[in-house]
Amino acid sequence: MRLGVSSSRRGGDPRRVRYPAVPGHMNVGRDGQRPRAVVVGAGIAGLAAATGLAERGFHVEVIERERYLGGRVGGWTEQLPDRSAVGMNRGFHAFFAQYYNLRKLLARTDPGLRRLRRLDDYPLIDAEGRRDTFRHLPSTPPWNALAFALRSPTFRLRDLIRMDPRAAAPLAAVSVPDIYHRIDHLDADTFLRRINFPDAARHLAFDVFSRSFFVAPQHMSAAELAVMFHIYFLGSGEGLIFDVAEDNFDVSLWTPLADYLTAPHVPERPGTVRFHRGVSVQRIDADGATGFRLFDDTGAEMIAESVVLAVDVAGLRRVVAASPTLGDAPWRAQVAHLAVAPSFAVHRLWLDRPVRIHRPGFLGTGNLDPLDNISVVDRYEKQAADWARRNGGSVLELHAYAVADHIPHDAARHAVRERLLARLYEIYPEVADARIVGEKTLWRQDCPRFAPGDFARRPGVSTPHPRLVLAGDGIRVDLPVALMERAATTGWIAANTLLRQWSGAGHDLQTVPSQGRSAILRTLATRQRTP
Question: Who's near 151: CB < 8 A, 6+ residues apart?
Fold first, then answer.
């Protein structure tokens, strides 16, 4: 069993960009009157916002619909048919080294990030049996992308020569947010065809990126794809290998953070935090005298001077629609226009036999519908590893992204399960005859949509109310961040925005460079844009 190595490396790229915090008071509650904030949603964005406010002296009430913390990166305990307790979550998540603001949050309780483990590789395969790997690639752009392309079985030097340099210029020299003004109207599939990107390489590499947004490339913004390429290839020198949590997300990440936020007398955190789990906010009234009144599904009412709405797209639309005193007409229209990506499935299996020892902890797949990846969870997650060792088996996870426009009915769900298992047995035939000791399937449809044209209509962190802010991975931010890092970044920005209202000191942020770091590629791209 290979668990990888501990990951203590944070911010190793000397060209990462730092955004210094606005100076101010380190404790805005220094006179004994703590500002009161309510954070709605305890996913990554909400937890970052709550941390940022509490560390400056706010009293923070966190309201979370679920019984667990972490949102789409939450974890909890389930029971198998034999009544054994096992860890469960919403699926695999990769913690890249360039997720600076997420790592800043995790470092509050794990300064050396010892609870993250580095996977030594994450190969990609396609239906033709072609295989790509990220192992031993150079970390410096653009040599990382060039080396990946030229050693790929789906990409040859002649493909590079055939590419249209004028059409490909946005990939070579991304600039955020300018890239959205240039190509957000295009879908990713059309964009890649225009630059003559080879079909096989597109399926094996770029499709994996687009489907990490839970959407097929023909429905994804070309600008979002270009920003992803920038974050992981041409914009970052952190390398392409990622970390994983060493145990289920609740144990590794969120229980320690909740303990830090609620423990008494923490010098680094002069404010206080209380969590309300299993509670859903129904309506928020803007009150000129007190700030805001929040009403939840238990019938309780809460008063706050400031509010962070860090909920998913459907939750944000629902709360705003039920709260007529929030915002103005243009802002409310922005919120109402937000849409979700197609539904997805996570299928976790507890089997009575192991996979072969050489199988990677994570395998991405291209053009192998409906399967998008296979995780051998017991290779990196402690609870799964303990179960596998006790039972002589393995714990596997199958992902199916963008399965259907809506969560399908029972018969269609069963059909997806059968197709996922068939793909598993095709790729890992050694478990074809394994007995399924237990299985859990999650169907969800709550990830934000990143379709062509969405960026300009997406609401940002600030709202028409100075003390009402938004946070989450579906909220607009004009920085080169995505997925979990976008959630963490908007959470910190939400806290900073509110802290300015009380002259509080903000929190520093970091990102990969906001434009292509190669002067040569930027010059060539500029020339290609010149008529």
Answer: none
Tell me the longest C-alpha to C-alpha distance in the chain: 69
Q: Which residues pair with 511 in a beta bridge?
A: 17
Give the separation between CA 331 and CA 464, rounded to whole angstroms: 7
CA 51 to chain centre: 18
Spell out a b/e string for 137-174, using b for 16 or more CB atoms within 10 Å of the CB, else e.
Answer: beeebbebbeebbeebebbeeebeeebeeebbbbbbbb
The answer to whether residue 531 scores a pLDDT higher than 60 is: no
User: What's the rounded mean pLDDT across residues 21-25?
Assistant: 96
Tokens found for residue 530: 């010149």
| Helical H segments across 197-279, by residue range | 199-201, 207-211, 222-229, 249, 255-262
Contacts of 305 (CB under 8 A, 6+ apart): 35, 36, 37, 290, 291, 292, 467
**Got the DSSP string for 221-235?**
BHHHHHHHHIIIIIT
| Helix-, strand-, coil-residue percentages of the chain, each rounded to 5 | 35, 25, 40
Helix (H) / strand (E) element for 88: namely strand 85-89
124 three-class SS: strand
Distance CA 393, CA 378 (A): 9
Distance of CA 4 to the CA centre of its chain: 22
CA pair distance 443, 346, nearest whole angstrom: 7
Q: What is the residue whose two structure tokens read 């714990």?
A: 395
CA 242/CA 372 separation, integer angstroms: 18
Q: Which residue has the tokens 């629609």?
A: 321
Q: Is pLDDT of 6 > 80? A: no
State the amino acid at position 13 in one-letter form: D
Using DSSP bridges, classify how beta strands 59-64 and 272-277 pair: parallel, antiparallel or unpaired.
Answer: parallel
Count CA within 13 A, CB hemisphere, residue 225.
32
Question: Is residue 529 scored above 60 in pLDDT?
Answer: no
For residue 419 the two structure tokens come to 């197709």
Tell which residue, 94, 129, 123, 86, has the closest CA to residue 396.
86
Rg (CA), the chain: 23
Q: What is the pLDDT of residues 197-248, one digit of tens each?
A: 877 666 666 777 677 788 888 899 999 999 998 998 888 889 888 999 999 9
Per-residue pLDDT at 8: 45
